[in-house]
């Protein structure tokens, strides 16, 4: 297929073939990291601006390294170093960046829909590196890439996502992508963390950890996102960990060949114990590795270099 989008804003917008095309492209770019010289000229002469209005470690580092591997010219801008801190609007900031003839803006922003807003008003490409509790498309893509790589397929797999679904952009992007690729998705956690609307698209909802874990081929654990909460959604961290945490006791409900995933950062001892995070079933660091290949693929396709 030919990639036709100038932006990547949400998994919700993509069809199954587009998702598969990104994953297939990422397979080719993963080979680059195994070479002695880990660089290709795919984006030579292109300029990418990383505009991170919200803090990030993994995603920003992964995007920047992906851009370097593709030979792009890179500019990094944070909220504190931009004129936004002086009262400039997001659109004015973006328009000034575009006036410098940049090709792509990779942005993380706390406001839901901020990427759609800019993409309609800019000629350069916009890539969503996370917008509020809405979507985080490249995280979902790297998760799906890792599942497909380890399991050989996505269609028909039982994938369970446990944790703060309500405030998680990672969960939303994963749910849309997995459903489109034919997986059976279960979400679990305290009832206050579970948006019921996902049931209408075939997602199974559990407020019991045992039921959520049994039969799962893949388990994706999410941290509690305190920074997005405006109220108390459960009594205490200790109580959450005892009821919904993955530990030696609750691992007895997990299949021996089930994959344990986490988008990071991990709150060890809360959503999962260190023994499990670092154990043989964990693919958490492989997710980080695969994120580089996926973001190289996204940058390559959205830039029009394909």
Key phrases:
single chain; 306 residues; alpha/beta; five-stranded parallel beta sheet; 10 helices; 34% helix
List the helices and strands and how they pair.
Blueprint: H1 16-30, E1 47-52, H2 58-69, E2 73-78, H3 90-98, E3 104-109, H4 114-119, E4 125-131, H5 137-151, E5 158-162, H6 169-180, E6 184-188, E7 204-206, H7 209-213, E8 218-221, H8 237-244, E9 259-261, H9 274-277, H10 284-302
Parallel strand pairs: 1-2, 1-3, 3-4, 5-6, 5-8, 6-7, 8-9
Helix pairs in contact: 1-5, 1-10, 2-10, 5-6, 5-10
Describe the structure.
By secondary structure, the chain is an alpha/beta fold. The chain contains ten helices and nine strands. A five-stranded parallel β-sheet has the order 7-6-5-8-9. Strands 2-1-3-4 form a four-stranded parallel β-sheet. Helix 1 packs across helix 5. The protein starts with 15 loop residues before the first helix and ends with a helix.
Largest sheet: 5 strands, parallel
Number-wise, the strands total 9
How are the strands ordered across the major sheet? 7-6-5-8-9
Report the end-to-end length measured between terminal Cα atoms. 11 Å
- Counting DSSP H or I runs of 4 or more residues, the number of helices is 10
Protein structure class: alpha/beta
Report the helical percentage: 25-40%
Low-confidence stretches: none
**What's the order of the H and E elements?**
HEHEHEHEHEHEEHEHEHH
User: What is the rounded Rg?
Assistant: 19 Å
Strand content: 5-15%
Shape: globular
Averaged pLDDT: 93
């Amino acid at each position: 297929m030919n990639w036709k989008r100038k932006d990547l804003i949400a998994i919700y917008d993509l069809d199954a073939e587009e998702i598969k095309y990104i994953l297939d492209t990422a397979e080719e770019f993963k080979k680059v990291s195994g070479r002695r010289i880990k660089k290709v000229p795919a984006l030579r002469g292109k300029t990418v601006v990383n505009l991170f209005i919200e803090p990030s470690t993994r995603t920003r580092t992964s995007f920047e390294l992906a851009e370097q591997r593709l030979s792009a010219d890179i500019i990094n801008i944070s909220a504190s170093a931009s004129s936004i801190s002086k009262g400039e609007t997001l659109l004015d900031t973006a328009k000034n960046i575009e006036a410098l003839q940049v090709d792509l803006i990779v942005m993380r922003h706390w406001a839901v829909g901020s990427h759609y807003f800019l993409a309609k008003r800019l000629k350069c490409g916009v890539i969503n590196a996370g917008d509020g509790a809405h979507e985080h498309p490249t995280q979902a893509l790297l998760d799906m890439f890792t599942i497909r790589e380890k399991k050989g397929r996505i269609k028909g797999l039982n994938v369970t996502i446990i944790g703060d679904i309500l405030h998680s952009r990672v969960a939303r992007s994963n749910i849309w992508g997995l459903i489109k690729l034919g997986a059976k998705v279960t979400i679990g956690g305290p009832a206050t963390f579970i948006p019921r609307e996902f049931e209408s698209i075939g997602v199974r909802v559990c407020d019991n950890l045992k039921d959520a874990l049994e039969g799962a081929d893949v388990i994706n654990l999410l941290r509690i996102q305190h920074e997005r909460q405006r109220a108390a959604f459960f009594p205490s961290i200790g109580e959450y960990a005892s009821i919904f945490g993955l530990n030696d006791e609750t691992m007895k409900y997990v299949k021996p060949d089930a994959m344990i995933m986490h988008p990071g950062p991990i709150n060890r001892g809360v959503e999962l114990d260190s023994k499990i995070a670092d154990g043989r079933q964990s693919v958490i660091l492989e997710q980080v590795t695969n994120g580089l290949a996926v973001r190289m693929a996204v940058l390559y396709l959205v830039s029009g270099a394909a």
